[in-house]
Each structure stands twice: as structure tokens, then as C-alpha cells.
Design goal:
The chain is α/β, with parallel strands linked by helices. Helices cover 49% and strands 14% of the residues. It is built from twelve helices and nine strands. Strands 3-2-1-4-5-6 form a six-stranded parallel sheet, with helices on both faces. Strands 7-8-9 form a three-stranded mixed sheet. Helix 8 (169-198) packs across helix 10 (217-228). The protein is globular.
Length: 296
């Protein structure tokens, strides 16, 4: 292990790009790869080496950080990176992958002698850019020193949930947290849609709950994005939120519980994506309340 860590970031979307920048600003050596290279190229201005392939990106890396769409995508990219991997490298898996996929990723890590960390993050574009994500992590205590500089660079706090990343304890906590986030986001859209249908000024609602137990900053923030038409660039895209909602429903089924709100959230998000809002902020689920995009 060198004094200056080399970190490979695979996936430079909304979250991955912000994390790569913060790693570089923290003084780490950063290599980045993205399926669409043009999305990674701007990172060069921040001192990040943009690699042409996953194999190139991970060669001689101390830590590999995957921030990809889902579990299958993460596994596919790591298989492509395999010739460049070396035994003993720490793999920080930050994709919201779902319970079944975490097991598959951990199995790949074992096959290649990697030290596996299940480490999804809580937060969207703004906290990611500010290095203020909440890292939910599980992995061996005796190997955490290797990844602590990475977590410190991208997050404000790390919550350790266990020593075995393969058990998926961090992913389980992430799914629970996201179930609340998605339910709240969809509720915001429905409040505004119902207000419009009933001819109620939304400000009357916000005034009524102001300062009370029903008030919350997240409600006002997401409502503001909808009302101001500020859904791009997204903090967290509709398509990604829909994927997470389906993973939550599947996790509930696996545990023997019905998650009707999560299922409805998934349907609303998928409907909004089909209406053309897939690349907008997940608050755009608001539009799923209408057959067509309503006039402002």
C-alpha cells in the first residue's frame, strides 16, 4: 500500500462524478471510467485520469469504487476489469444493488481475492458534490484503514453496519432508508396534484403545516423543484428511483411483507419515465398524476 492511495472510480454519473472530484480534491490519485466516456472527460480538469477501459482504470489501484446503475451493471463492469485487478485490492461497492445482487458481487470478490465492502450512500447530487454523503458500510474491521480516506473524502459520516459485506447489512439499511425517501417524494407530487385538482393554493397547505410536526424541509425542497420547473439537472433521476423502488418491493417480498406504497411508488415513477421524465429529478413523479403534462 502506497502512502498516497490510488482509487479507481467505475461509473461517473451524478454520484460517481461528484465522488471522483472529491477524492481528487482530498489528494488521492484517481482514475475514472464511464461507459459513455464523454461523461467522464470533464473530470480531467480536476486532476482525474480518465481511463479508456475498466481494466485500465483498476490496474494497480488500492481501492476500486463502483457507482453504477444496478447490481448486474456492477458485475458486468468488474468482469471487464478483472484482468487488471490484483488480489488484496479493496472493492467498495456503492451501487444500490439489491440483496440478491450483493451476494453475487461478493462471490466475484472472493473469486478474485478482493476485500469486499458493501457501501451504498445516502444523498443526492448536492450532498455528493459537497462531500457530505452518508456512507452506509459493511466490511472487515482489519481492512477499514484502506477505505477510510475514501469514505472521509466523499461523506460527512460513515455508519458501519457489520463486518461481512456479503451479508448485505449496509444494503438492507439503504433499502429501508430509500423506502422512506421514495414514499415521501411521491407523496409530495400527489399533494401538489390534488391541490391543483381541487383548486387549492399549495401555499395554503404549506402555511397550515408550517412549524408543526407535519412540516419538513424535504417536502418543501421537492415541492419547490416541481413548482419552479427545476427538475433538471436531477438530484436523483426518475429511472434510478424506479429501479430502487422495485428492489425495495422485491426485498419486502423476500422478507414476507407486502409493501403497497413502495409498489405504487415504482408504478408512478415508471409511468413518469414513460411520459418522458426519466432523466429528470424523481420529483417528476408528480406528472404521473396526469394523463399529459399539465400546463403551468
Amino acid at each position: 500500500m502506497t502512502d498516497k492511495l490510488t482509487v479507481s472510480v467505475l461509473g461517473t454519473g451524478i454520484m460517481g462524478a461528484a465522488m471522483a472530484r472529491n477524492l481528487a480534491r482530498a489528494g488521492l490519485t484517481v482514475r475514472a471510467w464511464n461507459r459513455s466516456r464523454d461523461k467522464a472527460e470533464p473530470l480531467a480538469a480536476d486532476g482525474v485520469h480518465v481511463a479508456g477501459s475498466p481494466e485500465e482504470a483498476v490496474r494497480d489501484a488500492d481501492v476500486v469504487l463502483t457507482v453504477l446503475h444496478d447490481g448486474p451493471a456492477a458485475l458486468d463492469v468488474m468482469r471487464r476489469a478483472a484482468p487488471g485487478l490484483r488480489a488484496g485490492t479493496a472493492w467498495v461497492q456503492s451501487t444500490t444493488a439489491g440483496l440478491d445482487a450483493v451476494g453475487e458481487l461478493a462471490a466475484f470478490a472472493r473469486e478474485h481475492g478482493l476485500v469486499f465492502f458493501d457501501a451504498p450512500v445516502l444523498g443526492t447530487r448536492q450532498p455528493a458534490e459537497a462531500g457530505q454523503l452518508l456512507v452506509l458500510a459493511a466490511g472487515p474491521a482489519d481492512a477499514r484503514a484502506a477505505v477510510t480516506p475514501v469514505f472521509d473524502a466523499v461523506g460527512s459520516r460513515t455508519v458501519w453496519t457489520g463486518e461481512d459485506g456479503a451479508a448485505g447489512s449496509a444494503t438492507r439499511l439503504k433499502l429501508v432508508a430509500n423506502s422512506w425517501v421514495l414514499a415521501t417524494t411521491n407523496a409530495v407530487g400527489e399533494v401538489l396534484a390534488l391541490s391543483q385538482a381541487l383548486g387549492v393554493d399549495p401555499d395554503a397547505f404549506f402555511d397550515a403545516i408550517a412549524g408543526g410536526p407535519l412540516d419538513m424541509g424535504y417536502l418543501r425542497a421537492k415541492a419547490g423543484l416541481i413548482r419552479d420547473g427545476a427538475l433538471t439537472p436531477p438530484q436523483f433521476a426518475v429511472t434510478t428511483a424506479a429501479k430502487d423502488a422495485r428492489l425495495i418491493v422485491e426485498a419486502g417480498e423476500r422478507g414476507g411483507v407486502r409493501l403497497d406504497v413502495a409498489a405504487a411508488s415504482a408504478e408512478r415513477l415508471e409511468r413518469a419515465a414513460a411520459q418522458g421524465h426519466g432523466d429528470e429529478d424523481m420529483a417528476a413523479a408528480y406528472y404521473a398524476s396526469f394523463d399529459e403534462k399539465p400546463s403551468d
